[in-house]
Hints:
This protein is an alpha/beta fold. 40% of the residues lie in helices and 12% in strands.
Amino acid sequence: MPPARTLGLITDVGNDILYGYSPPQILTWVNEAVDRLQRHGAEVAITGLPAVGQSDISNRRFLFFRSILFPRCRLSFAEVAANAAQVNEGLEALASRRGLRMVRLRREWYGLDPIHIRPSLWRTAWQEILCGGGQLHPLDGRRGEGARLYVMRPERQWVFGIPCGSPQRGVRMRGGGSVWLY
């Protein structure tokens, strides 16, 4: 059995755009998260934002998903796209500057919902995100463990604008290592 490694993953920062945060603020938070993870000896990987362009989504579809997933957001598709491009460029620069692995999300992983990976492709996507396409040692054959990670609540989150969360004690993986969600 290979030794357990400590992997820090920074993903889903695009949601903050739709919560009204500026690209510089988001990038400051990502930089701080990298600092925290590296203090714990983590190998850090950063995912880019989903590549959603004018050809992928109509304004009507954008408004539909924005209204359901981010009901308080009033940004236009053009504003969100411009902010997303700025965040993506900042993530790429940060990864390059700090020698981190940058993972570009594949368009084919997404379906009608342009920002969430299709459940049928979760395993494929996460293998690439976590291991660069290699085998997922800690989760191989352990669907229950994957489900347990999926339902974990982060330390802080907002659901429909209401703050909630869970104190982090870490979840020990059967294959080695631990997971915390911040």
